[in-house]
Structure formats: C-alpha cells, structure tokens
Amino acid sequence: MAEVLTIAEIEARYPNEWILVEDPYTNEALEVQSGKVRWHSPDRDEMYRKAIEFRLPYSAYLYTGKIPENTAIIL
User: Fold this and answer.
1) Which residue from 38, 42, 47, 71 has the highest number of Cβ atoms inside 10 Å of its Cβ?
2) What is the pLDDT of residues 31-75, one digit of tens each?
C-alpha cells in the first residue's frame, strides 16, 4: 500500500515534477494537504496518461516546481 505523504514531503521527494495524488486529503478550500503519490513525472502529459490508465475514483494533480512568469492558470 502506498505511503501517505504531506505536501511538504511530496515537494521534497519530487521537485519540479507533476504528481498524481491518489485519495487526496484537502482542507476547506480544497487545497491538497496530503495523499498517496501514485505517479510522478517531469512530463505533464505522461502524468495525465497515467491518470486515465489508473482511473482513480479520487485524485488530484500537483506541480512541485515554480510556474513560469506570464503563465495563465485556468481552474
């Protein structure tokens, strides 16, 4: 069974990578606080392909690197 990691632990173990988190624990603002790392990769598209492959009932996507300036984020 996968180990539950906090956001700080995920960021320390997987710097500058896209993270697929299984069974994320969130706060009231729906910010991920912890979860099980199911997949990680520096390639965002690879992480999305794995998310489709795994078909997890509850998951979240994270990026542990710095988002470049002049980048739009759409929620």
Assistant:
1) 47
2) 999 999 999 999 999 999 999 999 999 999 999 999 888 888 787
